[in-house]
Protein 1
Amino acid sequence: MLGEKYFQLDMSYWGRSRRLVIQILCIWALVAYGLPALVMETNKMNYLGFPLGYYNCAQVIPLFYGALLLIFNHVQEGIEADQMDGKPMVEAASSAALNAVLMKVYVAYTGGFVSFVLFLGFLEAVGVPDQAIGILFVIFTLGMYAAIGIASRTSKSDDFYVAGRNVPPIFNGMATAADWMSGASFVGMAGTLYALGYDGLAYIIGWTGGYVLVSTVIAPYLRRFGSFTVPEFIASRYQGTVQLPGGKVVEVSGVARFLATIVLLSCSFTYLTAQVFSTGVIVSRFIGIQFEVAVFSGLIGVLFCSLLGGMRAVTYTQVAQYVILIIAYTVPAICMSTTQDDGFNKNNPVEFLVYGGTLQAIALREKEMVLLGLASKVTPYLEPKWRRVDFFALTFCLMVGTASLPHVLMRYFTTPSVRSARRSVTWSLGFILVLYMTAPAYAAFAKLEVYTNVIGQPLSVLPQWVFTYGKIGLTSVCGKAVISVNEAVDACAQATGGDYLLKLKDLKISKDAMVIATPEIAGLPYTIAGLVSAGGLAASLSTADGLLLAISNALSHDIYFRLIDDKASIQKRLLISRVLLVVIALMAAGTAASKPADILSMVAWAFSLAASGNFPALVLGIWWRRANAQGAIVGIICGWGLTLTYLLGTVYGGWELWGGISNVAAAVFGLPVGFAANIIVSLLTAPPPDNVLAMVDSLRDFKVTGEDLTAEELEDIKEKEEALARIQVPQVSNTGEATAEATAEVTAAEASI
């Protein structure tokens, strides 16, 4: 019967997996856009002192994404278990052994870092100058990262490009989180929430929501393909020929590879510049050197890791950096949280449950400042200021951009299996949520401190941090960056500083200064401020590591090796990659030294460029067999080209915004054009060749992933497990050496089998 055939469910592995993805994405979209759409109505309700609408967007939605990925993994692994006919799914023995070794190493490393912070706290208590403590923090962290890079050096291409494809999911999740939580997240996120209030939550909803797309739509299939870079996948997927007017037939996969590399360069270099900029902000503040000099100084730690060990060194460094940055971000928030007493909580260290009373106090202080004449009008912190379409457009672009960033996607090339890649995405989001759940509390605590203890105070009693950050141009009083009370009095054109009360419009704080300044704003010990500087440095450098590696690998592997000299030896290719690392790093530092824009804006541009250039080609390449090379090429040119044109025109060309849509959401124009161009041109031209269709089918077929192991393969794994069981945790003097030696022993054990 026709109806029976039409309604019969496809119970194949691909059919069941596809239905699961569709169901997950429908739920994801409903929550991601439904709850923000109701924010004005739900803000009238309270939950633990929180306006419910704000709390839903700041805390509930990101947590829901994590729960959704756990459900997805559980159901998908059940589908795969059905394909195994009851046989257990076996992970690589080397990965399990490495996981145990790394767990012990990084627990010891964390204990060592906490001890170091306590020691610096002791030095502060006995009178060591603040600047000396800041310098010790910066030198210690840069030195540790450089040591790990030296200890993890490698000359093997597999280690350099994809860390040997042996990184356990939990540690790949930590490395991805560090790679992801850049200076934009660490330095800029809380500052953006401080400045924008509710509207800033678009960044949290968008960036965390993107990991649902990564896990369900893209990452497992890229891992199954097994490439080194994103452009390599696009070139392999979009093979085809075109007949030129003279009759000559040419292969166009090289054009697709070249365009994908250009997209990678455009979004990654923009993102890299933002990280180097934030490094300069932190180093200049805590060492006291000129911003331009600080920018170039911060590259030392990056280059040591990337130059010597490639992805292998970067992975181990990023795990260490995650430990530092998350301690540095949460400790000040916990310290401020324990001082809150809002009627619901008292001395509660769980910061994301405590700041509801702080939000209410901010709302009351806003009204009070207007009544006292300290502000003519205050935009409510908890209410949307943007149009709803602007909020949703930015959220959408950040979600899709997250699933398109090459330096994030390449992290999932390093896992042992497809299942590990999926689990790694979930671990990544879990580790990221630790920071993103804290950022709204961080911003609220800082907001109330400024509103209460700075606004309305005489100029003569302004706190020292106003002048400290005025020296590096991150704060201003009455329109001028001041470094003393006298300068503040002059700037505000007052005869004395004792009579004039500082008004809200008089004080400007850069969004990029908020996190590193908050410990001083809250009156916490300077050691906490130094800890925050170390965390911000870790966040910026970890992302810079990944971006530099993505750019240099694409240029050396996809351009030089694949398009220029396909006979180049591994040694020559690695040399080219390392030279490019240095050149790109210097270019990024030079660009950052010119201070082109605030950190979060630069990062948002990168997301739009990645979304419009990569997402249509990746999604259609995996999920639509009919997509061909001609469609991909035209789609990238049209989608990415339109986004770039809109960005340049509105930022530098004086263009009016189209429909009022901000340029940080530029992909809202380029992305649909990229999809439409790809689909239309693919339908108007010949279908992909048979070998490409076979490759697409293999990406969707569980049977070819290597996870249905033969008896011989199971025996090999058993032998590996026996060999690796003899590995002892190395006794070495520092974490970097321990990590490198552990990996070396695993590699040796594998090679011996």
Protein 2
Amino acid sequence: MTCFVVNYIVRIPQSLRPNVYDALAAFHQGANVQRAHFGPAFPGWHRLYLWILETFLRQQDPQVTIPYWASHLDGEMTTPTSSVLFSDAFFGPGFGLPITGPFRTWPQINPNTVFTRNLAAGTQLFTVAGINAILRRRRNRDILVPTAPADSNFELQHGGAHVFIGGTMNNLNAAARDPIFFSHHAFVDQIWERFRLNQRAAGIPTATDYPWDPNDPRIRASHNPNLTAGFSTVGSPFNSFRQIDGFSDDFFQLVQYEQVPSCATGCAGSRYLRCNTATNRCVSRSTAEVRAAGINVDTQPGLIPAGRKKRQAVQRNYEVCDRNWFLHDVNVNSMSLASPEDLRNTYTNSWSYIPVKIITKRPTDYIDFQKFSAYGSHVNGVNKQPELTQFGTQKSYEYCRDHMDAPGKIRIVAYGLNHDAYSEEYVISDNRLAVSESIGVIAVKTPTLASSDVMVAAFDICGRVCRPYCKFEPDTTHNHVFAGAFKVSTESPSMYSSSYSDALLSIWETPTDGACPSVNNNLFPLIFFCEYTDHWIWGPNTSPAP
């Protein structure tokens, strides 16, 4: 096994092309994604990755470390997207390109690899309950894919922050281009180190507790402990790292972590945290709270209260500004296609566009505007549709009620199954009404000789999933429930368009000049019904087609 000691000699190139950061970010794509994710190497691979970045950073400042982002401190806010972390004093804006904040010059440095963000309100970040479920376990097989139970699945829990940040962070092949990736994974590493401290206390050898079973077909071959971790071009000793090397105990000597701020310590004296007396836990302040407290961040740089030990990071002086909001953090500038990184800056026919209709039933736990509710008693019961008035208790994210508003937000995503493309779209629903309709357009990779296999899903701001329907041959006049996976091919009939506008206009009909346009519902190839009932969304179809 490769041995790491504190006084090691590192032989790394002084610079990388096109620059150090982009070269390192490129390690989290392609074949390395399969080495880093979906298996037991997950925490160790990312530990090695963090250490490589810190080694390069220390060429500029020997005392620098990566501060960790304890996202559960933001997750317990009423509106996590308003956290002061997404101000110019810390990580910069939460929507669009980094045109302000500490990374505002990145579009000019390398526009081909600049990152974008699209904060997703309602997405569940790390939670205290989830972290505790991990820390109660004692073996890596009980927290890592594919053997971990659902409640302590470490990699699954870590994915919430990727979805929350959205944009580039929500694409595994490009996520590391956003610097918040490394602070997020520093916290993942902090949790894992706390887990390993519990292992040591229980007498479990942490360096060899690598849950590899060559006879388990669920474990990917790329996670073989003796295979390369894939850091082939950054010099010695990084280019010799194997998957199991991330489990080495020598990292305990190299890196240790500050504790997460607590109410008992006064939230580490941070001006950007407050103690929630209801939970006795620290929670992040919003940008508005910081401004109201009279904190002038232009002259008082913000201290990160927790990080990799003995080297506390100081943020640069950037102004904290209140972000203009629209419809509960639905930003008008982000309500469009979020281009996946592997198709960005390529020819325009990389995309095909499919019109989507969203039918939204009023959530049963939405308590405002009672007079518009279809639940309970009805004065006029004639032709009442049970499917639209049936109660349900579909589970939602923690703190969801605080996010409920009259304008609802439904998120639609499309993941490539035989390719790496990803896109997302938002539509607005009206929670005041018993049932409402919305129209959107989702982008998929254009099929060529091979089909473009896609998985689509839709869910509301609370994480509740909508039931998908599509038109099957030979009966293309009715909508049929399906799992969400489909093929887009060049065969007739084509149910997609070559542009966003064509897809949107294709569902509208105007019988004569000057006539009022109307939607032809038979032209929607894809429909989602957000029904909020208790039955399993992808189970047997117990609901009529909408």
Protein 3
Amino acid sequence: MRGPAWQRTEMSDSETEVKMSTKPTSKNQDEPFQKRLCSNLFHNIKFFVFCHSLLQLTQLMISGYLKSSISTIEKRFGLSSQTSGLLASFNEVGNTALIVFVSYFGSRVHRPRLIGLGAVLVAMAGLLMSLPHFISEPYRYDHANLGLRQDSTSSLCLLSQAPEQASASASVSTPSNSSCAFHSEAPQMAVVGLMFLAQALLGVGAVPIQPFGISYIDDFAHPNNSPLYLGILFAVTLIGPGVAFGLGGLMLRLYVDIDRMPEGGISLNPKDPRWVGAWWLGFLIAAGAVILTALPYFFFPRNMSKEQQELGFKKRILPSLNDKGENSLIKERTGNFPDKEKDEAAQIAPDLTVIQFVKIFPKVLLRNLRHPIFLLVVLAQVSMSSMVAGMATFLPKFLERQFSVTASYANLLIGSISVPGAILGIITGGVVVHRLHLSSKQCAIVGIVGAFACLILGIPLFFLGCPTHHIANIYGPSTFPENEEFLNCTQLCSCSKSDFNPVCDTSTHTEYITPCQAGCTGFKRGPGPSQDLVIYTNCSCLLSGNRKNLVISGSCESSCSNLVIPFMLLVSVGSAVASLVHTPSFMLILRGVKNEDKSLAIGIQFMLLRILAWMPSPVFHGSAIDTTCIFWASTCGLQSLCRYYDHDLLRHRFIGLQVFFKLSTLFCFILVFSILRQQEKEAACSRSQPDSVLQEEKLALNSEKQSGESTV
């Protein structure tokens, strides 16, 4: 009995040991499966392409959102267009200082982590851009009366009051020394300085994102899949500015102090020229999106195994392209160099130290700048980028001023019409170059046609606009019959020079800066539940024979606001045509430089575009816009933002700058085509000369043979 019992206990112990050993084994098998699942995800180049597309989209949301709210920031902080243009381009300062060294570092660093750190800096820049809202005082749309409530009584004429009351009220209407000290220049400069610092930080953070991302995809993707991945990356990235303008259109409908509304609300609507939208809210949303898209980069490896399989649908759809076109395109780009020489050329940059790289960079720069094709194509891209930079920065403000539309509506038009046109143009240009296998000469022809068509489409924009309506004592007929009486009347009303509360005399379509300037002593609310419309009564200083002596709050409505849609359609078609030139010009650069200089040539190209186009162009456009101002606002004797522009002069100078850059682009592409045609003729002559020599040698041999046969 003991034997079997002992056997049974031994067997039961062994069974329990097996059971105990199997439980942790299954657990250990689950953990590697989870780790393997995560490692497979972060070792997949397709997932990296997906993450990088989202990151570049959100990064462009921050830079694009500033352009969508540039006119609102001008109103909020009293900036001129020149200053706001400098602010919009200041991110290129930090970017330009570091972009060249990206070509040196290449694969020496952990690229995904650097991309993640750069994205964190971009998010911090977005948060810093919104900080001025929280450290500034609430927005007061009635700057003159710093001690009164922001209501309709704050800018009425004081003519009917008693002398002692009028003098007391006049002292209130004129800013006191204490209030001016409160609104001194130092806090304003500190707030604006924070925004400039945020823009510089945005430029520094954006340095590693695109170059390291593109090189990482190119290194570890299948050679035949890499162009497709990069095409997807650029296509998704281009949606970023459209999303930014759409976000601006939504945020600027909200009042700037939505988080700290005054008691009793406000009597403004988005159509009021004093309206300031919630410009800061979009920066918070975009910064949060960048943070979310930056997290995966800290889990990607420094190196991953190269993708082995080509995408199946690409094999089925483009078999002939992969067999013929792509190989010929690669040969044309790389040239007929031996593999050993290519490897040596590719290893030049990794073997250099930082000091050697700094020493060799000026030589490579001069060598590329001496190349006529490279120089002219870069100049053409500089001209085109200058046009795009100025249009992207100030087109919303131009639409607001020229057609009297709200900031939110202008941004929605740009985001829904103009940006999709540019995206369509870039994609179409890439498809044309890819499918037709265009040569360098044909790429130059595409550049000429695109620049010429863009120029032709820009000419009608000179005539699509609205004239400036009459503004009392600022713009209108050279002499009013009642001008002297009007000036005397406004002096008796003790009107503040820094007040701004525009009203409109609808009978003559004349605008007055304040109800006080119109001599209005009373007001009443207009019909409707919103109570936004205010009707000012007993207006004694009107320049016309308005028997009712009534004016309404807000600027006079434009008579040709419906022209904004045809204007935007022409701008959209022009941007689509101009974007066709993007890919052909890029191919001209790749084919025009030596194989070992391509990486640095691309870095030099981006550096020159930033220095010569993206940095100065917004400042040039802003300065041109400032020269068309006819009335500058002033606070405590300091000039701030422009209240009114000469619309015709604004349109002519803004569109004129665009036409100038288009002409420069066309001229550069014509020179490129001429040089390529001359090089083609010289190459044909050099090929025909050896053929003629060979024919002469054959004739000489034949004659010798004939003479030998005759002697025999």
Protein 4
Amino acid sequence: MAQFQRPTLCCCRKVLTVPSKSCEGGQGLGQCRLVDIASASNFHCFKLRHFHLDLRLNFAVKEITGWQVLELVAIQPGVQTLVLDIHPSLLIHSIDCKVPGTTGAQDISPSLTYRVDPFTDYGSSLNISLPASVIRLHRAFQITVRYTTTDGPAIWWLDAELTCGQTRPLVFTQGHSVCNRSFFPCFDTPAVKSTYTATVRVPEGVTVLMSASRSAYSKQDRVFQFSMEYPVPAYLVALVAGDLQHVDIGPRSRVWAEPCILTCAVSKLGGSVERWLNVAEDLFGPYVWGRYDIVFLPPSFPIVAMENPCLTFIISSILESREFLLIDVIHEIAHGWFGNAVTNATWEEMWLSEGLATYAQRRITTEAYGEAFTCLETVFRLDALHRQMRLLGDNNPVSKLQVKFEPGINPSSLMNLFTYEKGFCFVSYLSQLCGNVKRFDSFLRAYIEQFKFSSVVAQDLLDFFLGFFPELKESCVAQREGLEFERWLNGCGPPLCEPDLSAGGVLTGPVQSLCDLWASEPPDPEAIANFNLSSWSTFQTVLFLDRLLDRSPLSHEVMGQLSRCYSAQLDEMNAEVRIRWLQIVVRNSFYPDLPRIRGFLHKHTSRMYTVPLYEDLCSGVMKCFAAEVFYQTQARLHPNLRRTLQQILFQTSALPTTTSVPSLLHPTPSSPSPTPGGQPGPADPPTTGTIALRDVNVSA
């Protein structure tokens, strides 16, 4: 995701409040603030009907060149300037304007005047002067922008040695939340949706994929054609190009990956994807995007997964853990309804995407795998939420569902567990008010049908909810004392209530019993021996290790006993399990298991595994060891991750990057310095504890 930097205040920035769904022509009932886009000053003056990209990928110089054609309609009179979001890494060559279907000189302006102004550290403002002779109210016109873009926050070039196969280079884009302004000029806000097409020219042997509903390929010309026939916001336009092959795994799904991992990826998913899609359709209505393909990306992919329509991006590192893979894919499937079809109009209400998608994910897993499994996964995530809450404090404003951030704050920095889990708890509460989960399923189907392909604010959802259940509106559930909707949205702290998870007791009970045995003085080895971790699921094991981690520091005697009981056993388990044991080792300075940390960091080069361990190593007494391992492995790290780890190693004393969250609402001179690749940089050390990266970002 995009990097957060201290903002540069400038006169061109505006804070705009517009009706929700204003760009889709709907009757939005709420209001949303748009402080993260330069185009907020006038995007509501235009209707973006469609755009086309014509791009050439040059791997040798790591550059994308080409042009973009935007088809616009002026919907307000007297507009003289078009403002688009771009980035300093995107170089404009020329801009022209024409009216499609006309040939008169008065309808063509071959070269428009434009100006690029600073906006924030994550973007710039492209101001285009429009010719009065061409721009008429309600008449379509086309703006063509010729440009070159290189290594902005959306575009990740991987040299061959950083790919899984280590034979050919690869490039991918990651637009969430406000990164795609470095990929192409746009209205970089979820409030604006449009269809798009693309033509992409590549060297021989390169396969290109995009988040599009249709595609075609001319082998002779080495040209790929794409079409997205459904309206999407800018952040959901995605591209990947490299040595990619595919296997069909269902009637509307295929898996894409580099050849060396394709067989593994297919074997882990099998026919499950079509099953999950069918369950989701039974719950929430038809899947509207046609295709649901998945592409597995190298460990340099900066997050776990991204819900690009028709083409989910997911990190290949997750293939080690079947249960985490299952949850992440189902979560991205749920976004097909919640986030992609119906989108939050402003990043200040990201929970409308993530909270609803998390609820939908758990409805799917309940139907597919039973209530106990879903409750276990939920307990695991809510544990992480409360861990984050203890570290940030009950009054931290980032714990609100409606976060108000100031101009210059990067919305990507507000990706945290509250948008997922507190949002999930609020949606679960709405479900409980209905008295029947099936009735709430019916509401969600109607909600999708009502707002499909538009962008909404929380008030749209809640008004539709109360209109769908008039008896609840009559009983004033929105004002129920202690559980007011307004308090859910704008109150700090943990969820006002949590769903009943007792059905998971058969799985969570043994975990807690074993934790209690290890907490006793001294631990009873005979009782402990009755528990066999190898018979547990991954989620049971990571829940156990997370709760042990919460009890740190542990005595050296207990650590020795834990190591004798579990170290060899955990070595055979997946990375999600092993990293938690290694964090326990680091936080308790248990030197006998340091070789396991070295081996893990030599094998795993993804952000989600390296950053938490380096943060823990550098916040304790093992900084020299961390530096030694870094120098041994840095050649296999993506440059963005390398710089992040260098900052952890050499510019911090006890700070994990994710603890800078509290400073994100109001920029100050002490705001974090930039960390490429999407994580906040270091700030002042926290007073207690550390936050592992997985405690903040689940997936996009």
